[in-house]
Design brief:
28% of the residues lie in helices and 23% in strands. It starts with 16 loop residues before the first helix and ends in a 6-residue tail after the last strand.
């Protein structure tokens, strides 16, 4: 009887045969990751559109809108605390006036930050005396008009410097 010769065992599988066993698992993992990423994207898109819609929504029928801020209070907030003198001083007739800020409202009310004789600017609302013989008559845009009386002709027009471009 002829006995077969024993030869060392060799692996008859191709080197990529081990990879083919993991290929379905790898494909399933990648597919699950892509589905999770797509789901996350759409959830964020829908949440963003709902948030944008709620920002532009109108208030409920019984809801009250906040009242607009008084321009003189806004002007008072814009002045540094150290620049707020407690006593009102009258400006002499030859004083220099410089407009440093305007808070104009649509209702005709407003305030202006005016520096008198190089002192720190103070807030003046329409109708307040700015100096001796001058009353703040009106504010509009980047301009403040002053005159001897609230309803009289304007004798001084102050304008803010042009904005840098």
């Amino acid at each position: 009887m002829i006995l077969p010769t024993l030869t060392p065992a060799t692996d008859t599988r191709a080197p990529s045969a081990g990879l083919s066993r993991f290929a379905p698992r790898l494909a399933a993992g990648l597919l699950a990751a892509a589905a999770a990423a797509s789901l996350s994207y759409w959830v964020l898109q829908i949440a963003d559109s709902r948030m944008a819609a709620s920002v532009g929504a109108r208030p409920a029928a019984g809801a009250r809108l906040p009242e607009p801020a008084a321009p003189e209070r806004v002007a008072r907030l814009l002045v540094a605390p150290s620049a707020r003198p407690e006593a009102v001083t009258a400006a002499p007739a030859g004083s220099q006036l410089q407009l440093t800020g305007v808070a104009a409202g649509t209702s005709g009310r407003g305030a202006a930050l005016i520096a008198v004789d190089g002192l720190p600017a103070r807030p003046y609302s329409v109708g307040m005396p700015v100096g001796e013989g001058l009353v703040l008559q009106s504010v509009q845009g980047r301009r403040a008009k002053l005159g001897p009386a609230l309803q009289g002709p304007s004798t001084v027009v102050l304008e803010l410097p042009p904005l840098p471009r």
